[in-house]
Amino acid sequence: MRYVEEFRDPGAAKALIARIGEVAEAIGATREQPVRIMEICGGHTHAIFRYGLDRLVHEGIEFIHGPGCPVCVLPMARVDEAVEIAERPGVIFTSFGDAMRVPGTKKSLLQAKAEGADIRTVYSPLDALELARRHPDREVVFFGLGFETTTPSTALTIQQAAREEIGNFTVFCNHITVPQPIKVLLDDPHMLLDGFVGPGHVSMVIGTHPYDFIARDYGKPIVVAGFEPLDLLQSVLMVLEQIRDRRAEVENQYGRVVPEHGNPVSLAAMADVYEPRPSFAWRGLGEIDASGLRIRPGYAGWDAEAKFGIGYGARRAREVAEPEGTRCAAVMTGRIKPTGCGMFGTQCTPETPLGALMVSSEGACAAYWQYGGRRSPEAAE
């Protein structure tokens, strides 16, 4: 048995921080010319700021916050379509809580709920399926969101609905995949990245080999990391050691959870239920080929896009401009920090969000707001 205190031990943290400093000095990292390490997962972003790791490590280490929040990268048009479904008569629309306050062009799901739509927060797609069992006269729709972490649970629920022939349950599928947007970032000549801290929960499902292209084709080290402070510190050290040794490999710091080849049961369910979309729109990155998943024709009876004639199933997702003055796309892709947006902490707050990054539990702006008092560029210094 291993306890969480083992991964938060102050003595071990100090030793790792000292070692990070030594390797950073050896490779010539400075505040003016830092080693830029992108953490892909929004959960890692929050852990970094919750534990103050950005302030504890050597000043020559800069954390770049990647597009690792699936709610945040969802374009506003898809939020609008979710609201459109939810407001139809006879629909019970269900969603995870962190999507409820994400603004669309006119309103959020929470605002639609306040106006009378039957929208309910659930903790699992199975909760939505149970609602469909209990309300056979209503159409129950689950807002399927997330990277590969949550994709299997939605797939398994659709399989269960098919076995039971529950015809009043559908999924509005917005599941997306991690590797494709990383390639887009690496192909961007303006993105200067030295290495990656890879997502732990996603990798628990897909394994480590989907990241091979990062090391093989781009020569960048990536270390799949856990979420405790010692996990992240050790992962940063492993990235730095690869840079020092002029290596580019996929390493797995989170071996206690992440298997090399992923979870076969989850992967089988995903392959059965989903197929890649030709392309999918990402907020901040635009259309990315084969980066989204759609429900296969064999399960069309449980596909909300097919049943309601909405979304990619009916037309291309329309382009919707971000609110004037916001810089969500630049924050999402690591080009600026949240404090670089003039709206941060002024017009855009958790109470009055203009963008998803401020309200999602994995959003970078929410992390800056919640931890460390980073409410202005000066406070970030």
Detailed description of the structure:
This protein is α/β, with parallel strands linked by helices and 381 residues long. It has a domain at 76-177 and 261-313: Rossmann fold (3-Layer(aba) Sandwich). Helices cover 37% and strands 15% of the residues. It is built from 16 helices and 13 strands. The strands form four sheets. The protein has a five-stranded parallel sheet with strand order 2-1-7-8-9. Strand 3 (91-95), helix 5 and strand 4 form a beta-alpha-beta unit. The longest helix is centred in the N-terminal third of the chain and has 17 residues, at 10-26. The protein is globular, with a radius of gyration of 21 Å. Mean pLDDT is 91; it is low at 374-381.
What's the CATH H-level homologous superfamily of one domain?
Answer: HypD, alpha/beta domain 2
| Overall CATH architecture of one domain | 3-Layer(aba) Sandwich
C-alpha end-to-end distance: 41 Å
Order of helices and strands: HEHHEHEHEHEHEHEHHEHEHEEEEHHHH
Mean pLDDT across residues:
91
CATH topology of one domain: Rossmann fold
- Unreliable spans are 374-381
- Would you report the number of β strands? 13
**Per the principal axes of the C-alpha atoms, what is the gross shape?**
globular
The biggest sheet amounts to: 5 strands, parallel
- What percent of residues adopt helix (DSSP H or I)? 25-40%
Q: What is the CATH class designation of one domain?
A: Alpha Beta
- Spatial strand arrangement across the major sheet: 2-1-7-8-9
Bin the strand percentage: 5-15%
Task: Give the count of helical stretches.
Answer: 16
Radius of gyration: 21 Å
